[in-house]
Automatic annotation (TrEMBL):
Gene Ontology CC: cytoplasm; membrane
SUPFAM superfamilies: NAD(P)-binding Rossmann-fold domains
Annotated TM spans: none
Keywords noted in UniProt: NAD, NADP, Oxidoreductase, Signal
Record GO biological process: intracellular calcium ion homeostasis
Protein name in the entry: Dehydrogenase/reductase SDR family member 7C
Presence of the UniProt keyword Signal in the record: yes
C-alpha cells in the first residue's frame, strides 16, 4: 500500500501540472480571440506597463492605438512590436502623440482615433504622474499638473470616446489605478488625491453605463516597479512601520500587471486589486479600524522626520 502511494504521488503531480498547462494555453488562446480585431487605445504606451500591455494586446491581434508624449520612444516601441509580430495575424499599430497633462489636446486625439477607425472597443487609461514630498512644499501648480495628468486627462478622453461606445452598446474602459486610490500614504498627497478622484469617477461611471453593456474596470496594483529593480534588503525588523511600508512598496512587475489587464478584459472584471497580503490587510484595517491605521501611519511619519536626510 505504501509503495503504491509513493508511485501515485508523482503521477498525481504530473497530472495536475498537465491540467494547469492546458488551462493556461486555453486561457491564452481565449484572450487572443477576445481582443482580435478590436480597436484598443493604450495611454502612456511608452511606460513599462504600457509597453507590456502593447505587447500582450498586439500579440492577441488587436488594432492598437499607442499614445505617448515622446515620438522617438513611440517609434522604438512600434519597431519592437513589428519586429517580432506575425504580419498575417497582427495589425500595424497607430501612433499618437498625447500628453494627458496637457488637457487642451485630449479632445483632438479622441477625434483623430475615431476618424481613423470609426470606433474604440477598449480604452486602457494607463498614464500616471507621481510626486513625493511634504504637502506644504508641493506647489499648487504641481498639484494641478498631477490632477490634470491623473484625473482630468483620463476622464476627458473617456468622455470623448464614451458616446461611441454607448451608441454601439459595447465597449470596455480600464483604469489602471493604484492602492493610493484606496488609502492615503504620507508625502504623496497630490498623487493620492488624484487616484482617489479617478477611482470615484470610474466607480460612478460603472453604474451609469451598465445598461448600455459598457464595462468599466479598475486594476489597482500597489506600485508598478521597473523591469530590473527588486526590493532592497535591509534591517526592517526594528519598526512595524518599516515592515509595513516595505511590504507596501514591493510593487508588481509590469509583465504581471499587463497579463492581469488582459484577464480583466477577457473576464470583464469590474475591480481587481493586485497586492500581497500586507497592503490588502491595510485597506481592510483602514476601513474597519481607522484609528489603528492612522496611528501606524503617524508613527512612520514621526520616524521619518527624526532621521536626517542625506544631501
Amino acid at each position: 500500500m505504501g509503495v503504491t502511494a509513493v508511485l501515485m504521488l508523482p503521477l498525481l503531480l504530473l497530472g495536475i501540472s498537465g491540467l494547469l498547462f492546458i488551462y493556461q494555453e486555453v486561457s491564452r488562446l481565449w484572450s487572443k480571440s477576445v481582443v482580435q480585431n478590436k480597436v484598443v487605445v493604450i495611454t502612456d504606451a511608452i511606460s513599462g506597463l504600457g509597453k507590456e500591455c502593447a505587447r500582450v494586446f498586439h500579440t492577441g491581434g488587436a488594432r492598437l492605438v499607442l499614445c505617448g508624449k515622446n515620438w522617438e520612444r513611440l517609434q522604438s516601441l512600434y519597431d519592437a512590436l513589428i519586429s517580432v509580430a506575425d504580419p498575417s495575424k497582427t495589425f500595424t499599430p497607430k501612433l499618437v502623440l498625447l500628453d494627458l497633462s496637457d488637457i487642451s489636446c485630449v479632445q483632438d486625439v479622441a477625434k483623430e482615433v475615431l476618424d481613423c477607425y470609426g470606433c474604440v472597443d477598449i480604452l486602457i487609461n494607463n498614464a500616471s504622474v507621481k510626486v513625493k514630498g511634504p504637502a506644504h512644499k508641493i506647489s499648487l501648480e504641481l498639484d494641478k499638473k498631477i490632477m490634470d495628468a491623473n484625473y482630468f486627462g483620463p476622464i476627458i478622453l473617456t468622455k470623448a470616446l464614451l458616446p461611441n461606445m454607448i451608441s454601439r452598446r459595447t465597449g470596455q474602459i480600464v483604469l489602471v489605478n493604484n492602492i493610493q486610490g484606496k488609502l492615503g500614504i504620507p508625502f504623496r498627497t497630490a498623487y493620492a488625491a488624484s487616484k482617489h478622484a479617478a477611482l470615484g469617477f470610474f466607480d460612478c461611471l460603472r453604474a451609469e453605463v451598465e445598461e448600455y453593456d459598457v464595462v468599466v474596470s479598475t486594476v489597482s496594483p500597489t506600485f508598478i516597479r521597473s523591469y530590473h529593480v527588486d526590493p532592497g534588503q535591509g534591517n526592517w525588523e526594528a519598526s512595524i512601520w518599516k515592515f509595513f511600508f516595505r511590504k507596501l512598496t514591493y510593487g508588481a512587475h509590469p509583465v504581471d500587471v499587463a497579463e492581469e489587464v488582459m484577464r480583466t478584459v477577457r473576464r470583464k472584471k469590474q475591480e481587481v486589486f493586485l497586492a500581497n497580503p500586507i497592503p490588502k490587510a491595510a485597506v481592510y484595517i483602514r476601513t474597519l479600524f481607522p484609528e489603528l491605521f492612522f496611528a501606524v501611519v503617524a508613527c512612520g511619519v514621526k520616524e521619518k522626520l527624526s532621521v536626517p536626510e542625506e544631501g
